[in-house]
User: Fold this.
Amino acid sequence: MGKQLKVLFHVNEVEKWDTALGNITNLIKDVGRGEAEIKVVANGPSVAAFSDSSRLEVMSALAAEGAVFLACRNSLKKMCSGVDVCLTEESLPPFIKVVPAGITEIVRSQSEGFAYVKP
Amino acid sequence: MGKQLKVLFHVNEVEKWDTALGNITNLIKDVGRGEAEIKVVANGPSVAAFSDSSRLEVMSALAAEGAVFLACRNSLKKMCSGVDVCLTEESLPPFIKVVPAGITEIVRSQSEGFAYVKP
Amino acid sequence: MGKQLKVLFHVNEVEKWDTALGNITNLIKDVGRGEAEIKVVANGPSVAAFSDSSRLEVMSALAAEGAVFLACRNSLKKMCSGVDVCLTEESLPPFIKVVPAGITEIVRSQSEGFAYVKP
Assistant:
C-alpha cells in the first residue's frame, strides 16, 4: 500500500457541484476507499447546494466513504443577509461541518500537504 | 541553472483550452525549453478538444517542446455514452496519453511536487 | 503564533475579482494582519480591472494590509494589441508590480511553498 493521498476540493459556485461530486466519486473508485483523505470546502454561493436534497444524497453517500464536507460560515451568513434561501448551521445535515472561514481552511490544508483541486 | 519547475495544468472545460495553451506557450517562452516539466491533464468535457484539428496542432507543437498531454479515460468513455462526438483511445494522436482517472493523476502529481494551475 | 501561511490567488477573468477580493478580505480578517503572506497574480483579461477605480480602491486597502498585487506583462501587452483599453505599466498605481510572465510566478511560488487558490 502506497502513501495515502490527501486532497482538498474547492467548490465556490453552485454549478460546479456536479463536476466536483463526479470527480470525488471517480477518485474513490480509482484509488479505493480509504486510500485518499478527501476534504471538500464550499464557500461563496456554492453553499446554497446544501439545501438541495438530490445533491445532499450524493454528498451523504460520499461522506459515508470518508469524504469530509466543510461549509464556510462567512458564506452561510452572507446568504442569509440577502434574498436567497437562508441556511442556518443547525439546519445542515450532521455530516456537513462548519468552518469559520473556508478560505483559511483551503490555505492551511495545502500547508499540511493536501493537494488542491478546483473542479 | 536553477531547480527545474514542475507544473500540472488542469483543463476540464472546452472553453479553457485557449487560455491553457497560451499559458503553456508563455511559460516555455519565459523559462526556456527544458526548464519546466509540464503535464496537462484533461478531464470532463474538455477531452472533446482532442478532435479539434486546430487545437491539436498547437498541442502537438507544445508536446514537441516537452509538454505531456494526458486524457482521462473516464471522461473519454462518458463522451461516448452521450450524443457527443465519441473519441476512441485509438483515434487519439500518439502524443496524447490516456490515464485511467484524470483526477488521480492531478492529486498524485501534486504529492510529487507538481504545482497546480487551473486556467 | 503559528507558522505564517503563504498563499497565491490566481485571477485570470475580470468577473472573478470580486470573489478574489472578498476571499482575501476574509482571510486577513480570520487569521489576523501579518499572519499570511498574500500574493495576487493577475493574468489574461483580468488585468483590465487595474483600470477600474472602485476595484482599485479595495485592492489598495488590501495592499496596505500586506497583500502583493502582481500583473502579468504578457497580458498587459496583449490588451494593448486589441481594441480593449490599453494599460501601460506606467499608468498602474504604485502598489501593483509587473512580472514578466504571470504563469511563471504562479508555478515558482508554489515551488516555494505558497498555497494556490483559484477564486
